[in-house]
Amino acid sequence: MSLRFACTMCGRCCHSLRLPLSVAEAQAWLEDGGEVEVFCEAIPWPEEPAPDNGPAWHKRKRSFAAVSGHLPVRVIVTLVAAFDGACPNLRADMGCGIYERRPTACRVYPAEVNPFVALEPAQKLCPPEAWTSGGLFQDDQGHWTDPGVADAIQRRRGDDYAEAEARGVLCERLGIHEAGLSNEGVIVYAPSRESLREALKDATETYKTPAGHVDWLLVSHRLRTMWLLESAGARATQAADLAGADRRFVSFLQGE
Ligand code: SF4
Ligand code: SF4
Q: Residue 51: is the preceding peptide bond cis (ω within 30°)?
């Protein structure tokens, strides 16, 4: 099904966000005085997926190989610009104060980066009238018609793929080794600005494969998940048992 779209400049997508960033964008966000968090999630990965399993290969490219106890896992690390209320770059007229160098994720919205996720207008922040006017946004073959949006999607996806290993190095530098179970929740780390700046620089300059000896601890808030993980040989702990103010568990599941 094709979609029409015209941005109404309502500014809703520039408020109270967790905005995914590339390494370079995270460095720029920090330089501008913004806050950057590190989201960690892990996927049990006992074997490689079938060649035609596109969604699994998409996850594989976004992640690096690791272990949790005796269980092979893949870890996805997302650098996130975090703010509540208006974005620090949002102007009073709802324009972007850094428009020419805004993060790629801002250029993508409301399109989808994941090629296996369909755009659902009802899931987006845009008001209903944004979807009833304007030009063709996505054709009935699923192609994005705006070259700027299509290019931003490719760059966002490409950064996630190209930087997966570097983000593993970043975690090693920061001593990060806990992750939520993908589709269930994430561990959100809030390192100090200085340590994150140093680790980003280090990960970018060395740009090598994570050493791989880090034994990841998988965190869940569900007893059944804990039992399944431990049965599979993983190291697991309950979210309620996390100690320390430098990180927190955030559930993806509604009402939990
Ligand atoms: S950087 Fe600009 S486009 Fe992105 S959320 Fe902030 S104000 Fe909006
Ligand atoms: S929420 Fe949608 S309509 Fe509103 S400013 Fe963002 S992209 Fe435009």
A: no
- pLDDT tens sequence across 16-53: 999 999 999 999 999 999 999 999 999 999 999 999 99
CB–CB of 2/62 below 8 Å? no
The pLDDT score that the predictor gives to residue 39 is 97
Q: Please give the Cα distance from 256 to 252 (Å, whole number).
A: 8
Q: Which two tokens stand for residue 106?
A: 């801002």
The per-residue pLDDT for range 80-93, each reduced to its tens digit, is: 999 999 999 999 99
208: pLDDT strictly greater than 90: no
Expressed in angstroms and rounded, the spacing between residue 112 Cα and the centre of ligand 1 is 17
pLDDT at residue 203, rounded to an integer: 85
CA–CA dist 244, 233 (Å, integer): 26
Could you tell me if 174 and 199 are in contact, meaning their C-beta atoms sit under 8 angstroms apart? yes
- Could you tell me which residues come within 8 angstroms of residue 107 by beta carbon, excluding any fewer than 6 positions away? 148, 149, 152
5 Cβ inside 6 Å of ligand 2: no
Atom 4, ligand 2: residue with shortest CA distance: 10
**Cα Rg of the chain, angstroms:** 19
Distance CA(241)–CA(50), nearest Å, equals 37
Q: Is 89 left (phi over 0), alpha (psi -120 to 50) or beta?
A: alpha
